């Protein structure tokens, strides 16, 4: 029995090597981007079409290392350097079984650091075990994937995005994910389901809800639970080319905090894709691409109530609604970028999505992605079909340890080139950001300055043209709204919003501490165009024009390994002005403004990863 137990433990530890960090696994995604910006890795991928298939580009010692991310081995081709040990319980079972060979039962190396701080001291007690199995001829690989846990606690109103199947929620919300990975020859598969549980507590309903987008501000009035296939896939790889069926989250674009077109803000959706495993080398540069065909689902709450009651007015509670159950939105998407050989580190990309009601995806739908974009050529489809196009750049300066990036998009297709170039504000959105590392005196210590802004609200063009159209909304009874299971696929701030985030991060080989400020203005279009008692109508006089809903936050973050875990924690102190764009009915107005519904609140975040 003991031998069987040890064999099972050995088998679990040996599940192998080869898979890559998924979109949303922030510790590893940040570490990889940091390593590239610092010039500590041979990866030449843009990191603008993710997840990245690292095993086809480099030979990392371990794709899920915990420490020493910028060590010497990284510059020799290792993606992340592994200086950790195996899980404590399994390690003890294996090391105590005398029937196992010495190469497994004994430590594989004398990589013991007696200067480790107390939180890593437990690592000295563990034998150094292989955390993956890779056959001698590299035909078979098996791996036990990291366990990931996330916790969010919002105290006043929902806040936060780019968190997959987690929902807008007040109260406690948790996320869990765990799975296995296997690879045989050119085939690989991963099973990594996700589970979410949310208290979904009451908060004051907004005075307005948009009618052409399936994006509920609250998912019913009872505790919420979700379980899905998560980051699972079956893939076939042919050198630089891959094809798969997957429910993984995708990320398109250069942004770190947001993406205009594709991110992990919503749950992953079932899709088929053909993609580059690593850049194709051409005489003039390198090319990456991904083609996706899929169908998106409604939330089960749409359409939701839009009528209001009381003063200040508020909409009625959202309840489950089966009107669109079984209805599907056809999604066809293309992402591609190019790195000119004359400008290494410069990535120029384009993303295109076509969305309409359909029960299936065809090759004809995918071929439409390379058809002309102008409506004068392809014909006007009105609200029944929607296409969104973005263009972006990312310029990486590894010698200076810096990067700059930007993305610009248009939600409603242009009629012709004159329309495109003469009205740049029509249904547009844009994103800009930069990041700079400053090396400190001690090796492996860096100070990082970063900033990113995302503007999704429409410009003045929307007052005279396509009134009510916006980024992610396009009429069509909800069939062309850019959401899946009730959440936007791109920037989680949502239609009409803008957000600016910037701050400092101090990175060492053992921990990371950060301080950021963030300004988030909720749906300016609702404020200007849709809330009747504040609506902008020519000739009307307003005693108060100050009720923009703005959340201004300070974030204090800390991250470090802790007894085999990677712990990421964040405390958010938020000041909210004019919650729900509303006045305080119990306050007395002044000369400039009537006081709004303001509040100061605390929000807590934690991510934890246990790498087996």
Structure commentary:
There is one protein chain. By secondary structure, the protein is mainly beta. It has one domain: Porin (Beta Barrel). 11% of the residues lie in helices and 35% in strands. The chain contains 10 helices and 30 strands. The strands form 4 sheets. It has a 24-stranded antiparallel beta sheet that branches. Strand 28 and strand 29 form a beta hairpin. 44% of the residues are buried.
Helix content: 10-25%
Give the percentage of residues in beta strands.
35-45%
Mean pLDDT: 81
Overall morphology? globular
Task: Give the tally of structural domains.
Answer: 1
For the record, give the distance between the C-alpha atoms at the N and C termini, rounded to a whole number: 23 Å
Summing up helix and strand content along with how strands pair, one would put the structural category as: mainly beta
Q: In the CATH scheme, what's the topology name?
A: Porin
The top level CATH class name: Mainly Beta
Q: Under the CATH scheme, which architecture would be assigned?
A: Beta Barrel
Annotated CATH homologous superfamily: Capsule assembly protein Wzi
Largest sheet: 24 strands, antiparallel
Give a count of the beta strands, DSSP E runs of length 2 or more: 30
Number of helices: 10
Uncertain segments: 1-18, 67-98, 100-130
